[in-house]
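Input sequence (64 aa), recorded before submission:
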Amino acid sequence: MEDLAASLARWPALVSEMKQVLDLPQHELDRNLAGHGPEMQARTQRIVQALLDGELDPGPKPVR
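Predicted structure, token format:
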């Protein structure tokens, strides 16, 4: 995730667009991912979790 966050830091608008996924109800996200294989589903869930954890935001990281 650190490499992904570092590469996305150059495109804050893209991160902002990715955050729109967080506004989707879980059933809608699941429906959208249903046509994709388990690898894509797992990758998407990791990205969603990284967004929730603030790991993809440029700038200071949240204190844990």
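Checked by second reader. The chain has four helices and no strands.
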